[in-house]
Amino acid sequence: MLKLLLHTFSMAFPIVVVVLGILVLVGKTVFLPFFIGSLVIMIVLLVLLYLDKKKDAAAAGK
Q1: Is residue 15 one of the residues assigned to a domain?
Q2: Tens-digit pLDDT profile for the chain (62 aa)?
Q3: Per-residue b/e over 31-57, b at no fewer than 16 CB within 10 Å?
Q4: Is residue 62 part of a domain?
Q5: 1 in a domain, yes or no?
Q6: Are 49 and 10 in contact (CB under 8 A)?
Q7: pTM of the prediction?
Q8: Are 23 and 31 in contact (CB under 8 A)?
Q9: What domain range includes position 41?
Q10: Which of 6, 16, 24, 43 is 20 to 30 A from 54 via CA?
């Protein structure tokens, strides 16, 4: 279940980051803190996803 949530949020957060980034570029600076926060969360989730895939590949290689 935890792996499913990790994969789901890893794929959903880039969409959120793109939408908030567009809003910030258009001039809606009120969304800047949300953009930075979601960008940090997205990077953390992608790192966790990479580590999870690396762990699975190592387990399959044994």
Answers
A1: yes
A2: 677 888 887 788 888 899 999 999 999 889 999 999 999 988 988 888 888 888 888 888 76
A3: beeebeebbeebeebeeebeeeeeeee
A4: no
A5: no
A6: yes
A7: 0.76
A8: yes
A9: 6-56
A10: 16
